[in-house]
Design goal:
Length: 551
């Protein structure tokens, strides 16, 4: 890893100047970068769709790798409601006359995948910096194809846990690569759509998991659970073939000092012969932003994520991901199991699961309309407040205990899914991509997602014990516990989450550098191309704060 750091630093030192001129102080390059920034911020959605159709396609293809993770994580929660799966991997409970996978092994299966994802995330952070997003994804897709064999042929629950750990490694890699790539290949106006499409891929995977389980739950042989596992071979092969022809991120090439490769990638991501697009100016903007961040801090290591202004950015991005686990969203993955534990028939629970995830897809698509008009911070905070209210209602319905209340709980959880996928779910991917610095983006996302998976280990253990009939058996009262954590999350978001809507990366860099409070981001004017910016940056880096007021 030390060799990797040296390679990148040497490349940047030898290319930190263009034609012998410092990028930060080269008036011609600053002029080009400013022209590109102005053009990008004036770009309408329709113009961006016409100019960047290839970038949209490649980003969506890369993001589709997360269909597999959404599929498997929802699959496990659903399989706990499958009789044949419980007979194969569970134990018989004489008290209720049913087969069931114990809460301890359920936690092992869910947390095995999370543990593998943490390792995959950390590994992908280094690999993607050295070899690029494209080659990293191709390598982990090959691993994915091989590891599914372990799940498919697992003879017992112990081997199944090993399979989940192994599959978690490539899933973790996909989690870090996809938002970074999506945020770098598209202009500001397209960033929220492409990054939130990642959430759509999760929901698509979850929908397929419910549909496959619905189709196989009636089987009375081993194929009741082998078919769902085997479906996971469907995704990697076509994605792998497509990615062979995908361009690398221009930002990655600039960070490695290869301007010509960056321009070639940019041209492959855009439509040709557009009279209003200047590739050289866009590359100048990328170079200016990269050099601006280099002047604020030199490092590219995980340690640098916890230094200076990047400590705040890391805290925010990590916090956004932790909110994903603490806002009650875990109950969505256990939807079918949750309802069967509440007394609903397994087949009906899978049918409702399909409705839940279909509504989730509608919600994610609706969020694209919402984000074009409302700030990310407002959407995220409002969504958490709505989730809190729904969780309180679900917990209260648990006291009724009749069949009508069970269906009402199911309906409220479907509404919860819609609210989550309309607000918190998709906007999270936009926020984590925009609020991390471009030079430390991959590593910041890795740290944040690793924290997310680590917290999910706690969340999964708690949920399994709360819902399992062999453990605490709280049933729908479980929602009260997660209402409490959702309230704490909403308080943190109100005070710490800034608004990045409509900002370029250079503008966000300056807002963080000047330590603008989170609630003032949206109304603060900033110009990263103004004279004296370099002086301000150096003073802020040396002293930790600026001596003068914002203009």
């Amino acid at each position: 890893m030390a060799a990797e750091k040296r390679d990148i630093n040497e490349a940047e030192k030898s290319h930190g100047h263009v034609d012998g001129t410092d990028v930060i102080h080269d008036e011609a390059l600053i002029s080009e970068a400013k022209a590109a920034t102005d053009a990008e911020q004036k770009l309408t959605l329709l113009q961006a769709l016409k100019l960047y159709p290839k970038a949209i396609f490649w980003s969506m293809l890369l993001s589709s790798t997360l269909i597999m993770e959404g599929y498997d994580l929802a699959l496990l929660g659903s399989l706990y409601a499958s009789t044949e799966f419980n007979k194969k991997y569970g134990t018989f409970n004489p008290a209720n006359g049913k087969w069931a996978v114990s809460a301890a092994w359920q936690s092992g299966l869910s947390n095995g995948a999370r543990a593998g994802e943490i390792f995959g995330l950390i590994l992908a952070g280094w690999v993607s910096d050295r070899y690029g997003y494209k080659m990293t994804t191709i390598g982990f897709l090959i691993m994915m194809i091989l590891f599914v064999f372990v799940l498919f042929f697992a003879p017992n629950v112990q081997v199944l846990v090993v399979g989940e750990i192994l599959c978690g490694i490539p899933w973790g890699a996909f989690q870090s690569v996809t938002p970074a790539y999506a945020s770098e290949v598209a202009p500001t106006v397209l960033r929220p759509y492409l990054t939130t499409f990642i959430n759509m891929c999760w929901v698509i995977g979850q929908f397929f998991a419910a549909a496959v389980n619905k189709g196989s739950v009636g089987r009375t042989d081993e194929w009741a659970y082998k078919i769902p596992f085997g479906i996971q071979w469907v995704w990697p092969v076509p994605i792998l073939i497509g990615l062979i022809f995908a361009p690398e991120s221009p930002w990655w090439h600039v960070r490695h000092g290869n301007r010509e490769a960056a321009k070639a990638s940019l041209l492959r991501l855009t439509s040709r012969n557009d009279p209003n697009f200047n590739a050289d100016e866009t590359i100048a903007m990328i170079e200016h932003t990269n050099e601006l961040e280099k002047s604020m801090k030199e490092g590219l290591t995980y340690r640098d994520c916890f230094k200076g202004i990047d400590l705040r950015r890391t805290e925010i991005v990590v916090g956004i991901w932790l909110v994903q686990t603490l806002g009650g969203q875990n109950l969505m993955g256990y939807f079918a199991y949750f309802l069967t534990q509440a007394g609903m028939d397994a087949s009906n629970s899978f049918s409702l699961s399909m409705g839940q995830y279909a509504l989730g897809m509608v919600g994610t698509a609706g969020s694209w309309f919402l984000m074009s008009r409302v700030g990310r911070r407002t959407i995220h905070f409002s969504g958490l407040c709505c989730q809190l209210l729904i969780l309180l209602i679900v917990g209260s319905l648990a006291f009724s205990g009749n069949n009508a209340s069970i269906w009402a709980i199911g309906a409220m959880l479907i509404v919860f899914t819609f609210v989550y996928d309309f607000t918190v779910g998709p906007v999270t991917y936009s926020l984590i991509s925009e609020l991390s610095s471009t030079r430390l983006k991959a590593k910041t996302i890795v740290l944040a997602r690793a924290a997310y998976n680590a917290s999910n280990i706690f969340v999964n253990v708690m949920t399994n014990y709360q819902l399992s009939s062999t453990a605490w058996n709280w049933g729908a009262k479980t929602a009260y516990f997660w209402a409490g954590t959702c309230l704490l999350s909403a308080v943190w978001v109100f005070f710490r989450l800034p608004e990045p809507k409509g900002r370029t990366y250079a503008q966000l860099d300056m807002l963080f550098e000047r330590r603008v409070p989170a609630r003032d981001f949206a109304k603060t004017e900033i110009d990263p191309f103004s004279h004296g910016v370099g002086v301000d940056i150096k003073r802020a880096s040396a002293e930790g704060k600026l001596d003068k007021e914002l203009e």
